[in-house]
Design a protein that fits this description.
Blueprint: H1 4-32, H2 40-72, H3 78-102, H4 110-151, H5 160-170, H6 207-215, H7 229-239
Helix pairs in contact: 1-2, 1-4, 3-4, 4-5, 5-7
Length: 242
């Protein structure tokens, strides 16, 4: 099941892909054909409106990502750093393209190349962010959960070894187990059950609140409500050993 953050990212990505295709088509029609071109005025108008929509939605997505990063207090991973550089490059190219078209007409010929680069960088950015998260996050989680269902040993206190394996498969990409600070996309969980409150939601550290965080997470953590109660007990039992 996709959580709200993933649905939002997927929706923005889909809109940007559609706008990129429209931009590419109109640009090729305007600059790439010498004969049999369609109504140039209409094509240019569509291209301008499409560009403005692209810029506004791209800016909204960038601001949303910056806000989520600031709230999580996480350091940028190498992949996130690549995303950031790609986003900055797209923004700069878009700004230069507007300047060349509007004010510095002597550089107008470069606008075509910039348009192509913007489209290519956009596809690269979306493929390595939303596409990667959707494919690896959702499929790996589904596979891991299916495998875990076979081997879960249900008990009142939970199975520590199975909890460790589940944590490694589902949680370790974001959470450290040997520290408490934010070094990935989420806080480290060492000594979690020795603390009074959970690191982000600030709710009391109890089995019930950890279960709530796993199934219906506070803020930007993905939901794992497809896990069984026994699997969650196993994970909690493992967390208590940290």
């Amino acid at each position: 099941m996709l959580n709200f953050d993933m649905l939002l990212k997927l929706s923005i990505s889909l809109i940007l892909i559609i706008l990129s295709f429209i931009a590419t088509y109109t640009m090729f029609e305007i600059f790439g054909k010498t004969e049999g071109r369609k109504n140039m005025d209409i094509l240019k108008k569509i291209h301008r409106i499409n560009g403005r929509l692209f810029f506004m939605i791209f800016l909204f997505g960038a601001i949303a990502c910056i806000y989520m990063l600031s709230q999580s207090k996480a350091e940028l991973t190498p992949r996130a750093t690549l995303h950031a550089f790609s986003a900055v490059a797209i923004f700069l190219l878009f700004s230069l393209k507007i300047l060349f078209i509007k004010y510095y007409r002597q550089f107008y010929s470069y606008a075509k190349l910039m348009g192509v680069l913007i489209v290519l960088l956009t596809f690269n950015l979306l493929a390595f962010s939303t596409g990667y998260s959707l494919v690896t996050g959702q499929s790996d989680r589904a596979i891991s959960t299916k495998e875990a269902n076979v081997e879960t040993i249900a008990s009142k206190d939970g199975n520590v070894e199975n909890g460790k394996r589940l944590f490694s498969q589902l949680c370790s990409s974001c959470h450290y187990t040997d520290r408490r600070d934010f070094r990935r996309a989420a806080p480290g969980l060492k000594g979690l059950f020795k603390e009074k409150t959970l690191p982000v939601s600030k709710r009391p550290v109890t089995d019930e609140n950890v279960t709530l965080q796993i199934k219906n997470p506070y803020r930007y953590m993905p939901s794992f409500n497809d896990l069984t109660d026994a699997q969650i007990r196993d994970i909690i039992s493992y967390l208590k050993t940290l």
